[in-house]
Write a structure and sequence with these properties.
The complex is a heterodimer of chains A (501) and B (223). Chain A contains twelve helices and eleven strands. Chain A has 501 residues and is an alpha+beta fold. In chain A, the strands form two sheets. A six-stranded antiparallel β-sheet of chain A has the order 1-2-3-4-5-6. Chain B has nine helices and no strands. In chain B, helix 4 crosses helix 5. The chains are: A alpha+beta (501), B mainly alpha (223). At the A-B interface, helix 1, helix 2, helix 3, helix 4 and helix 12 of A face helix 3, helix 4, helix 5, helix 6 and helix 7 of B.
Chain lengths: 501, 223
């Protein structure tokens, strides 16, 4: 059956049987069916099918359902009767319900955000820190490539990027991305590059790169640095783990006095070692006495000491101890015997380059001072010039003394390792100590609660201010497919998966 | 929605569906003989109920309890579930009475409520099946109503594509017009018509073999 031979489609014939055609169209179809056997057969088929379907009948509503529905209806009717015909605004109740739903949804969203925001901030800081370390590694690799190509390290961070001409050159080698090279800022960290002059055996000079968080506490917590050795430091501690100084392992006391030149023209690393130890002790006074004995035995000293004994908590002693670097391991082993070790960490900061830099600058300054002294001894110029030379000599002398002190401090840091020791006495509740009053506890809890609520609110506001536009954008982008999906889901639910009866 | 309704043709050949459909038509309500005892239209009754007439609701309940029960019974596994859903539909109608506005035919309005309740029921069943490992309720032959019949038709309808099946059921049993079906399922009118035709064609193909065999059997008996 086709429209070429029949003026009406089969669907129209079906619609005619169902009474779904307009009057004119129905008359035309009716007239056609009277003359066309094929269309008449189709119409009869539709009617027959409907007739056939009548065999699927369901039972009448059970009596119990009638009663239940009646009782339930009566109960509902009693509840809604005051609203019927009373002129009550038809939109009032739903709007109240809607308002409650909206407020509940907002409260739920705020709660989720309050819980999620601190984690998000922590995650972002961790990501920024990882990115900063990655950038420092990239810069180290780039600096090595630059050195191989041009014979010296870059003079500034911009030399890592691409030059204006777009051709790699000494001005811009095109080794790192432009964001890092030009702005010096990436993923919440600011990168500062400094060159070190060439001197002595270190004829190629060196560099240091510091990566500091732009907004400390928000974009990142730790400060990173690196130098031409490739070691990356976080807050002064090497990220690659503790490197044992050669002078400690060699067992030769004389080796610690002067830097040793290695076979390949490099110096043995100078490492300032630092250890942190927390020990839970049974009796604090006794442990402290033993600590003093250990220190005197190993020729160490207490750089700083503080004790606290707050009510309701354990008594603690925090001491910053300095011991000879070669005695560190022995000291630590003995300190661990004071009680139960609850925490231990060790780190080492390589200061070789810093020391070499200082020695070189000191040597230059001393040479300058010697030359100035030579000029002063000759005294064959005008008085004004002699006075200027004397002034310059005094300035250089001041610098020398300052650098001398720095060198001594640095060497002292290397010679004497630091142990941050915390002795905590195991907590013993005191019957005599009066517990805080109920009122004070209530007050403290209230203040803490308000502070916590304020901080949460502040966190939400900060989050919305920072991420709100992005979230809104994504919401707009995703709302349309989401709406389509929801509609499709609702429709699929409405249709069901199978028919039963 | 009534603006979207086609101009119904009085001389069009609508089948007499008294045996097949329990849904009262507006013509019947308007006093065409089938319901002489209740000449008031459904819409008038609903308006009267929304103004506080309890009798109007009783009348609507008596008119539609069977059609709504049939609507659910053909779509859920258990008769008890159909009873529950029927009850829920009328309770929802009661609660929505204050907001009722006669913008569409009452039966369309009522079936829309029923459809939403059915959707919610299926959503809950899917949720329970997913998270509580509860089996989706399937028909238990031993618990079938004794008066249920047309097993062959039911099985054939089950094999139809689900949108086609829903359109067919709404047309054949709930007696909804194409436009009403389109509004209920959010489908364009032409889609409803073409899918209904497709459903009928498919159903005829599914039903024909047994019909043929029955005819053969009958002929054999006559012989």
């Amino acid at each position: 059956m086709s429209t070429a031979t029949h003026p009406f489609t089969p669907e129209e014939i079906m619609a005619f049987v169902d009474g779904e055609l307009s009057a004119d169209r129905a008359n035309s179809v009716g007239a056609h069916i009277d003359h066309c056997a094929e269309c008449s057969k189709l119409a009869t088929g539709v009617r027959g099918l409907s007739q056939q379907m009548t065999s699927w009948q369901v039972a009448v509503v059970p009596e119990r359902a009638n009663k239940r529905a009646g009782a339930s209806a009566a109960e509902s009717y009693a509840r809604i009767e005051p609203m019927l015909g009373s002129g009550m605004n038809k939109r009032q109740r739903p709007s109240l319900r809607l308002a409650i739903q909206v407020v509940s949804a907002m409260a739920a969203v705020l709660l989720v955000m309050a819980l999620a925001i601190p984690n998000l901030l922590r995650s972002r800081m961790a990501a920024n820190e990882a990115s900063a370390v990655g950038s420092l590694r990239t810069l180290n690799t780039a600096a090595a490539s630059y050195l191989a190509s041009y014979g010296h390290y870059p003079y500034a961070l911009k030399n890592f990027g691409l030059s204006a001409s777009g051709i790699p050159s000494e001005e811009g080698a095109g080794l790192v991305d432009e964001v890092l090279a030009k702005g010096g800022q990436k993923s919440g960290y600011l990168f500062i590059y400094r060159t070190l002059p060439a001197f002595g055996f270190n004829s190629r000079g060196g560099y240091t790169i510091n990566a500091d968080p732009v907004a400390p506490g928000k974009g990142g917590l730790r400060h990173f640095s690196t130098n031409q050795t490739g070691t990356i430091f976080a807050d002064g501690f090497s990220l690659d783990g503790l490197t044992t100084p050669e002078k400690s392992s060699s067992g030769d006391p004389g080796a610690a006095e002067e830097p040793i030149l290695a076979d390949h023209g490099q110096m043995a690393p100078m490492i300032a070692r630092r250890a942190e130890l927390r020990v839970a002790v049974e009796r604090l006074e006794e442990a402290r006495g033993r600590m003093d004995r250990i220190l005197s035995q190993h020729k160490g000293y207490v750089a700083q000491l503080s004790a606290s004994a707050e009510s309701g908590s354990e008594r603690t002693v925090f001491a910053s101890l300095r011991v000879p670097a070669d005695q560190l391991d022995v000291c630590l082993a003995e300190l661990k015997k004071l009680g139960r070790v609850t925490q231990e960490s060790q780190a080492g900061e390589e200061v070789t380059q810093q020391h070499l830099d200082l020695v070189a600058r000191l040597k230059n300054s001393r040479n300058t001072e010697a030359r100035l002294n030579g000029v002063l001894q000759q005294r064959n110029g005008p008085v004004k010039e002699i006075l200027e030379v004397e002034k310059e000599s005094a300035r250089v002398r001041g610098e020398i003394e300052q650098m001398d002190a720095e060198q001594q401090t640095l060497e002292h840091r290397v010679d004497f390792a630091t142990i941050d020791l915390k002795l905590a006495e195991e907590y013993k509740a005191q019957l005599s100590s009066p517990a805080p009053s109920v009122g004070m506890q209530l007050r403290n809890s209230t203040v803490n609660g308000f502070r916590s609520a304020f901080l949460s609110l502040l966190g939400i506001v900060l989050f919305l201010a920072e991420s709100g536009p992005t979230l809104l954008l994504w919401l707009l982008i995703l709302s349309f497919p989401g709406w389509l999906f929801w509609r499709r889901y609702q429709r699929s639910l409405a249709m069901g998966s199978s028919v039963v009866g | 929605m009534d603006q979207a309704l086609p101009a119904l043709v009085l001389n069009s050949e609508a089948l007499p569906r008294t045996a097949m459909s329990e849904t009262p038509t507006n013509e019947a309500n308007a006093g065409h003989g089938a319901r002489a005892a209740s000449p008031t239209s459904d819409e008038q009754l609903m308006l009267a109920f929304s103004k506080g007439s309890a009798c109007a609701f009783d009348e609507l309940f008596s008119r539609y309890k069977q059609p709504i029960f049939g609507f659910f019974r053909r779509r859920v596994a258990e008769s008890a579930q159909a009873e529950e859903l029927t009850q829920e539909t009328f309770v929802a109608l009661l609660r929505a009475a204050a907001r009722y506005e006669p913008r569409a035919l009452f039966r369309t309005y009522l079936y829309a409520i029923g459809f939403k309740i059915l959707r919610a029921h299926r959503r809950k069943a899917a949720f329970r099946a997913t998270f509580f490992a509860q089996r989706k309720s399937a028909p238990d032959p031993s618990k079938r109503d004794a008066t249920e019949s047309g097993l062959w038709v039911r099985r054939a309808v089950e094999k139809l594509e689900r949108v086609d099946r829903e359109i067919l059921l709404l047309r054949e049993f709930e007696q909804l017009s194409y436009a009403e079906i389109g509004d209920l399922l959010e489908l364009p009118l032409n889609t409803v018509r073409s899918r209904l035709f497709r459903a009928r064609t498919a159903l005829r193909d599914l039903l024909d073999p047994p019909a043929t065999s029955q005819n053969i059997a009958k002929k054999g008996e006559r012989a």
